[in-house]
Specification:
Elements lengths: L2 H11 L8 H13 L18 H17 L21 H16 L4 E4 L3 H10 E5 L5 E6 L8 E3 L12 H12 L6 E8 L2 E9 H7 L1 H6 L5 H22 L5 H9 L1 H14 L36 H7 L7 H12 L8 E5 L6 H12 L4 E3 L18 E7 L8 H8 L2 E4 L7 E4 L3 E6 L10 H4 L2 E5 L5 H7 L23 H23 L11 H11 L4 H11 E2 L6 E3 H14 L8 H14 L3 E5 L2 E5 L2 E2 L2 H9 L10 E2 H15 L6 H11 L4 E5 L2 E5 L17
Parallel strand pairs: 7-12, 7-13, 8-9, 9-12
Antiparallel strand pairs: 1-5, 2-3, 3-4, 5-6, 10-11, 14-18, 15-17, 16-17, 19-21, 20-21
Helix pairs in contact: 1-3, 7-9, 13-18, 14-18, 20-21
Amino acid sequence: MTVDEFIYLCDYAGLLPSKFDEQTWTQSIAKFVGIGVDCADLMSETAKFPGSKSDVNTTLKKYKEALRTSDSTDSLAVSIDANKFVAMSDDKKRKEFKAYLNFCEKTFFPAYIFDLNPRVRDFLAKNFMFTYANDGKRIVYMRNLDAPGTIWREAASSENAFLQLQGSMRKKLTGLLSTTNECSTVSVISIQDGQPEVQDGIPYYKLYEYYEQSIMKGVSGTPANVDYFKTKLHEYIENLKRSFENKKSKSELSRGLQKIPEMLHNMDVAMDEYGFIYKEQIELPAFTNDPNEPAFMYFDLNNIVEGPTPDFDGFMESVVPACRESLMAGIFATFFAQSHLNQYIWIESRGGDGKSSLFNAMAEYAGKNLSCSLGQTLNTEFGLENAVGKRMVILSDVKTGLSVKSQLIHNLTGHDIISINRKNKPIISARLDPILWIAANNPPDVNFANRNEARRCLYIKMQEPPIEIKRKFYFTDDKGNLILDASGKPINNGYDLKGNLIKEMPHILYKCREVFKRVCPPPYSVIKQTTEQSALTLENCVDLDANEWSTYIEETFDFRNPTAKLKITEIQEAIRETRLNHGERSAISNYQKGDIIQLLVNGYKCSKKKVKGIRYLEGISIANTSVISWAKSANLQCTAAPTEMLQNLYDDYKQWCHECGAYAKSRDIWLNGLRNVFPNLITAVDNKNELINLEYCPAFNTFTPVSKVV
């Protein structure tokens, strides 16, 4: 062995001395001889070692450069059983490791890639895996040994994942290490026919027995010196043999336990340097019903059985009947891993109806990893951090129906891979697969003209439960009447609804599964709504105040003639005119325009038509109350020839409205009203004067040719 080779080996093994005098170098040589490395050449008088740190660095740089340009630096692809661990992925480190293997072969002592018992390595391979953050930093995942199935979670620290282990994982790994701290067996890599070969589970002491003659050939000096090294080697082999046979003394076991933090640290260092104890990168699903599939959450569907559910049945009395099947389907979808709903479940409730007890019961029954509540954090920079790996995401006390227009809502229901910013952690890309539950006091504001937005809404409306249900949850007097507090609200009696729902949960899920089969067919992404529920959704969730807009609509339009039709633009202008008459000068948004049309179609049974590219609604006409009243008061009658200028008639109409206190419609809307009163109304232009011919007035039911009577 040359000096350069020895310095490289010291550096590689982390055994470079702190000083660089002759005595310290001699001590380093003795250490390597003690572990069986042939250092005979270094013990000669001609060996010259560097005397300073800079000289050591220079030597290392030159030797590594020689390694890179030598024949021994061919690419290395050490492929060990994929279920155990994967060798180095960095090409530069592969080449250096190949050179190191060749160097070890020259010294008649094989290299080993990890000095741990196979039981430890198998444990690591089964219980740890990794992925990478967007900036390339490693993220370590580990199994939750306290949970059923193959459940995983992110390590608290990916930089020191082993050293910071806690709980069952730390206890299990510490137990394995404490019985194998002397490296009972090793996995040996040696060069065979020019290629690396791996031999697994070789007792460490047998290596020294096999290579004893080669080792001793490297020991020179006086016979006494040779005998000394031989004695030390035999003692070392015997210690290893006793360790392999588990014949350790209490003091040895105690020293082994003291070494655990150091061993865990060394494992972290090795992981950071090579990552060879980890499986290949995988994408963990959030939820599974298969105990053998790695995921963040597992739920066993085999526990679902038929049985009575009195408290759940009572809770369902608080749900509007049209929404009950959708709610039950949503409950089962939360526990069914194959369901990937692209709908959010919006529950409108005034409180005190048990929905919070239902949420808490679902979360506790399946385990704490099932759900998270984002609360008011949804629109913050770290809004989605807590949703990673969660199946049930709850948004509670949502203040505005406009929350459904948030991009984050679309991300949660879209199941796409998205970038997630995490506080004091690397930014990651992850696929979220939650069932999204939203609790609010108001309905969502849905733009039904936007199909992508409308299809995501699954609206559940709560109602006042019957008195017999209330008596279960509130104090009553001797006559069965609810006892009220000073504010007039019933006083809760402390009934444990959540606890009882947890007890009923296997039976609740059985009932909900039967409903789910009917209303959510494969691929289990959409819960079908009944006609009644769809009508309820359109009535409550349209992106405007339906009651307020209905007032404007019914004042503006007439729906008695099924063949009447108006252009979409005429409808929007008429609504705008009516709002102006009421002092509403704010512009109508595009969302509102679309929702008004949807309200007319679904609430007033109009139908959409398109003729030559122009969009109409059929079954709607301008309400002509003021126009008809004016026409009657003005005693308009038919005439054979045009007799009046149109502007004069309109001025007369406005004057009449002013005197009567009525709202005067705009000229265009007034003229549309006249056309509805006089179907055969003809207007013409003669010498730039608009003329009008009133031929028939069904409002008066007369054909008499007349002119306006003053």
